Amino acid sequence: MNCSTIRSLAPFFSRHGELSDEDRATIEAHLAVCPSCQGWFQREQEFDAAVARVIQQVEVPSDLPNAIWRKIATQSRRAARMKVLRVAAVASAVVLLVALGWKIWTSRPVVDPVQWAAWEDQRYVFTYNGSRESAVEFFARSGVKTFVPYDFDYTLLTRLDVVAVEGTPVACLVFQKGPNRAKVYVLPKRRFRVPRGELAAATGSHCTVEFAESSREFVLVIVYFGEPNRQLFMPPGSIG
Ligand SMILES: [Zn+2]
Questions:
Q1: Residues with a beta carbon under 5 angstroms from ion ligand 1
Q2: Cα-to-centroid distance, 33 and ligand 1 (Å)
C-alpha cells in the first residue's frame, strides 16, 4: 500500500470492526516505517479528539429532539392552516357572489298588471285633460321637483313621464301636432351645465335639439321630430 491508500483508510482505523485484521496490520506496518504518514496520522487523531471534546462541551438541551419534532409539526400545521385559509377565502368569495346574485335576482320588482293599469289610467287622466295644472299635479305625485313650462298648448300633450338623464330624474312632456312632435325635458340647472348661444342647438338625422331658458332654476331641452318650430306647440292666444 502507498501513502495515499493508507491515509484514505485512516478514518476507519480507530473504529472497531470496520477494517480487517490484515488491513489493520498493513497500516501499522506502514506507519512504523513512514514518518510522514505517522505525523499525518497523529495530527488527524488530535483533530478528531479536539472536535469530540468541543462537541461534548456543547450543552445539548435535554428535550432538543422533542423540540425539533415539535417545530416540524408546528410548521406543517401552519402550512396546513394556510392551505385551509386559502380554500376558505376562495369558498367564501364564491358564496358571497352567489348570495349577491341571488339577492339581485329575487329583489327584482314584481310586475303587477293591476298596478300597471292604475298607473296608465292615472297618466291618461293627467295627460289628456288639456290643462297645465294636471301636468303639474302629475309630476308632484311622481315626487319630482320640476317646473312645468307655460308657453305650450296642453291640448296637444300626448305623454307625461319621468325619465333618468345622467342618473337624475327629469320631467318629460311630449306634444304632438299632426306629423310634428316636440319632446320637452325639464333640466334643473343645479344638476346640469347648459351651453348657450350657437352651442345650444343641434340637428340629428331624425330630430333637432334646442335649449330654451324656462325659469331661473330650470332649462328646457326641446327635441323636435318633424318641423323644428316652437310656435307650432304654443297656446293659440300667445302667438303674436
Ligand atoms: Zn506513508
A1: 3, 34, 37
A2: 8
Distance CA 160, CA 152 (A): 14
Q: Phi first, then psi: give them for residue 45, nearest 5 degrees.
A: -65, -35
54 CA distance to ligand 1 centroid (A)?
A: 29
* C-alpha 189 – ligand 1 centre gap (Å): 108
Counting the structural domains of the chain, the total is 2
Answer whether 161's CB lies under 8 Å from 144's CB.
no
State whether 129 and 44 are in the same domain. no
64 inside domain: no
Q: Is residue 120 part of a domain?
A: yes
Tell whether 159 is covered by a domain. yes
Claim to verify: residue 227 and residue 132 sit in the same structural domain = yes
Q: Which domain holds residue 26?
A: 3-57
Q: How far apart are the CA of 22 and the centre of ligand 1, in A? A: 17
**Rounded to the nearest whole angstrom, what is the distance from the C-alpha of residue 38 to the centroid of ligand 1?**
7
How far, in Å, from the CA of 19 to the mean position of ligand 1? 18
Tell me the pTM: 0.56
Task: Specify whether 44 is located in the same domain as 121.
Answer: no
Burial class (CB in 10 A: 0-12, 13-18, 19+), 92: exposed
CA 46 to centroid of ligand 1, rounded, Å: 18
pLDDT tens track for 100-156: 999 988 888 888 999 999 989 988 999 988 899 999 999 999 999 999 999 999 999
Q: How far is the CA of 42 from the centre of ligand 1 (A)?
A: 12
Distances (CA, A) of 166 to 22, 100, 137, 150, 163: 103, 26, 24, 26, 10
Q: Are residues 53 and 136 in the same domain?
A: no
